[in-house]
Write a structure and sequence with these properties.
The chain contains twelve helices and 13 strands. The protein has 377 residues and is α/β, with parallel strands linked by helices. The protein has two domains: 227 residues, Type I PLP-dependent aspartate aminotransferase-like (Major domain) (Aspartate Aminotransferase, domain 2); 132 residues, Aspartate Aminotransferase, domain 1, CATH 3.90.1150. The relative contact order is 0.17.
């Protein structure tokens, strides 16, 4: 039986041909295709400036630098995310302050975020886990009252909406990811949506060694940047993907709807049934506490049945780096409970309806097997 992955990018023949055209052109690095994709993304973001970069991690780090976050500052965020969300805070010399999540939405608890604000707090990085948007009204009310910059980790929420407005078309600094497992991809890559051309020019220098090109063919370097520009090869992929993003997200919603009745009889905590705002980047269930310690075995049993499942994510503050830094002392009971029980099931546009039934059936069998084994023990 073929393995059903938990996700898989969908690249059409038109996009493959566009990549071939770039390869034939001889212009492979940042060039006309990148500018075309930036313009298309800006149009989608209501005309706000958008700049491409080689990863959403770079977009988040450069956003912190644009926001003026410096060594000694604090940035509030969640521990239930890919580790890059916190790593970028360390990269600019600041300290991540982890607050707990809401156990229902699995998103940052904004009340606890507000209670954690200190005189050193400069910014907040909310994470739209699995494509479910953090409450933007409460977020920006909080930020406005306390004078904080907001760097939206919207890596997983391309095409998601808040009260009818697409993420990125409003707000402060908004970072999207175009990794192969995201709702649209450039192979590897990401972008940052900004507030002004001044910020965009700052970003351009940060992504290419702090360099400004001069008319006489020389250049100046007036700040410490990195090497994080996207290639035209990636941008050609992204242009094809962006045309299909809404189609992809509609299909994801259809598949997500199918999961709910099929999983209703199992002892699982299902995700919020949000079909208005979420882009359904992932379908994540929470195992019962009795099976949390057997999650690895459950994943193995599913794989034997031809189903790939994943864990997104272990709690950041419990990883070795953050324990060594003494950042594992925060009281985050909901984060730790969810991180121990979360399981990502397959969800991607090319899946068939029957694949959802296959996943649900395999999960029921695997859970039943482990439950029986536990009873015998």
């Amino acid at each position: 039986m073929d393995l059903l992955p938990f996700t898989r990018p969908d690249i059409d023949e038109e996009t493959i041909a566009a990549v071939a055209d770039v390869l034939r052109s001889g212009w492979l690095t940042t060039g006309p295709k990148c500018r075309e994709l930036e313009a298309a993304l800006s149009l989608r973001a209501g005309g706000r400036p958008v700049r491409l970069v080689s990863s959403a991690t770079a977009a988040l780090e450069f956003a912190l630098r644009i926001a003026g976050v410096q060594p000694g500052d604090e940035v509030i965020t969640t521990s239930l995310s890919w580790v890059a969300t916190a790593n970028v805070i360390l990269a600019v010399g600041a300290t991540p302050v982890f607050v707990d999540i809401d156990p229902v939405t699995r998103l940052i608890d904004l009340a606890q975020a507000e209670a954690s604000i200190s005189g050193r707090t400069r910014a907040i990085i909310p994470v739209d886990l699995a494509g479910f948007p953090v409450d933007r009204d409460r977020l920006y009310d909080l930020a406005g009252r306390h004078g904080l910059r907001v760097i939206e980790d919207a890596a997983q929420s391309q095409g998601a909406r808040w009260h009818g407005r697409e993420l990125g078309s409003f707000g402060d600094l908004v970072a999207f990811s175009f990794h192969p497992n995201k709702n649209m991809t450039t192979g590897e890559g990401g972008c940052l949506v900004m507030n002004s051309e001044l910020e965009a020019r700052h970003f351009e220098k940060l992504r290419l060694q702090g360099v400004t090109r001069c008319a006489d063919g020389t250049y100046d370097c007036d700040l410490l940047g990195g090497k994080a520009n996207l290639t035209d090869i990636g941008a050609a992929i992204g242009l094809g993907q962006l045309k299909r993003l809404d189609q992809f997200n509609r299909r994801r919603r259809e598949l997500a709807r199918l999961y709910f009745p099929l999983l209703a009889g199992l002892s699982l905590d299902l995700p919020p049934a949000d079909f208005e705002c979420s882009n359904w980047h992932m379908f994540q269930v929470l195992l019962p506490a009795t099976l949390a310690g057997q999650r690895g075995e459950l994943i193995r049993l599913l794989r034997e049945s031809g189903i790939a499942a994943g864990v997104h994510y272990p709690a950041i503050h419990k990883t070795s780096l953050y324990r060594e830094l003494g950042l594992d002392t925060a009281k985050l009971p909901h984060t730790e409970s969810v991180a121990a029980r979360i399981l990502t099931l397959p969800l991607f546009p090319a899946m068939q309806d029957a694949d959802v039934e296959r996943v649900a059936s395999a999960l029921a069998v695997a859970m039943g097997h482990l439950g029986t084994a536990e009873e015998k023990a």
